Amino acid sequence: MQPAAGRNRARAVASKDRCFAKDALAAGPQLEMEQFGTSDAPRSRFRDSAFMENRDVPVHRWIPWIAGFSSTFVDDCMREFLPHGQSGRCTVLDPFAGVGTTLVAAVAAGHNAVGFEINPYATLASRVKVNSPRLNLTALEKHRGRYADLSRNGARTARGDRPSDFATRIPFFSPSVERQVFGFQAYLRSIRDADIADLFRLAFGAVMVSFSNYTYEPSLCSRPGAGKPLVKDADVHESILRKLDQMVRDIRWLQEGLGQIPQPGTGTVHQMSFMDSATVLRPGSIDLMVTSPPYMNNYHYVRSTRPQLFWLSLIGSRADLRLLEENNVGKYWQTVRDAKPVGLEFNDTALENLLQTMRATRTDKGAYGGPGWANYVATYLNDTQRFLRVLKPSLARGATAVIVIGNSIIQGHEVKVDRILAELALRLGYAVVGIEMLRTKRVGASITKSAVRRGQSSAATLYESAVMLRKR
Asked: Which one of 120, 205, 277, 428 is CB 3.0 to 4.6 Å from 281, fit for a cystine?
């Protein structure tokens, strides 16, 4: 960024800061957490942040996903926090890219986008989406037509091998369905264009659970376990073709829109933990960060994407799966519950007291009670601080970081993650521009209502906030 543009950024950000009602948040690192107030209702600066809004938006709607935010929310962040009148495009970062909402929105707006994602299936989704503006649409339509002809004229089924390390309690696909899946895979192997092959793989990954004997409720479980019948037969090829048709329409729409921009932005997705981003991310290169880290709700993204990871050959063994679990930011309760008591890597009396209280909850349950869940909370908070440390050097001076995060209720104890995150940011030298409530109701049954996990009752409710930080 040129020096003049940097001065424009500083003036623009300073002007915005004066408009926020939450300016007092940046008063100093000794600010008590209860002073990080949030409004009782969502404010008008951001439109609906719920990821479900993406289900009707071209490109964004390709992949069902359990969490994240809407593309309109990203649009609002870019409008609010990117400097106006700056020559050249900006660079937008998402350290937890998921299926690419931030990246696609940034590229569609003419900016460059950089994402990090540790889950290979989510990485595949993000890469296909950000590469779609430059995809050869004519070649894609030819492959779609060829696949349709083959699937209707004798190549519907084939023999194949199931992923050897993909174990399920009941067969994942019924025999009739599985033979059709092998037929699709046979055609997939014939595609020589890597970008088109990846799009076909993503189309299959997006619909494969719908004709399997499993379902998302919202975590992956067997259909009988959810009170649903097995899928004895289904038209696999028709499901994939419908998804491909949607993708073709959306890519045409996106390419036509970007054709009106003199120099469309580009997207880069790194399949790696953001904690290792210093090896590829240039210091001071990021103009805006918009992200939603894993929530402290133990939703197991790795296990819920096991079908895609194995059937798309994105991983080859259970050891690969375990490595993803252990390197996930925030970890999972299953990976830390049996460890020795985990302490905080920073000083905070209030949080230490919370962890002590949690460890004393339901001790008779061992790792399934307070002791195991306290390990999960401590590990999550340690990773949160580390994330803020790693992020800071990559931001340009005056750049804004928008972090969408929710509170949590674990073993009956509320953990206000948004306020803790803001306090940690202050200690690391960020300016806290504000905390804005996005949603006052949020589903979190896997933590609050499970007989194993709920612990004591709590009057707290789940909410979601946007924590806005600025690099001084």
From this structure: 277
Cα 198 to Cα 172: distance, rounded to the nearest angstrom: 23
**How many angstroms from the chain centroid is the CA of residue 188?**
27
- The CA-atom distances, in angstroms, between 151 and each of 179, 197, 248 are 12, 17, 18
Q: What 3-state class would DSSP assign to 380?
A: helix
HSE-CB at 74 with a 13 A cutoff on CA atoms is 29
Structure tokens at 138: 């004519």
What amino acid occupies position 379? Answer: T
Over the stretch 392-406, which tens digit does the pLDDT of each residue have?
999 999 999 999 999
How far is Cα 55 from Cα 40, in angstroms, rounded to an integer?
27
CA distance 259 to 110: 11
User: Which tokens belong to 412?
Assistant: 């009956």
Say what the alpha-carbon torsion angle 394, 397, 399, 403 is, to the nearest 10 degrees: 50
* Peptide bond preceding 218 in cis form (omega within 30 of 0): yes
Count of residues in the chain: 472
DSSP class of residue 42?
-
Q: Domains of the chain: which residue ranges?
A: 3-118+272-294+329-470
pLDDT over 70, % of the chain: 83
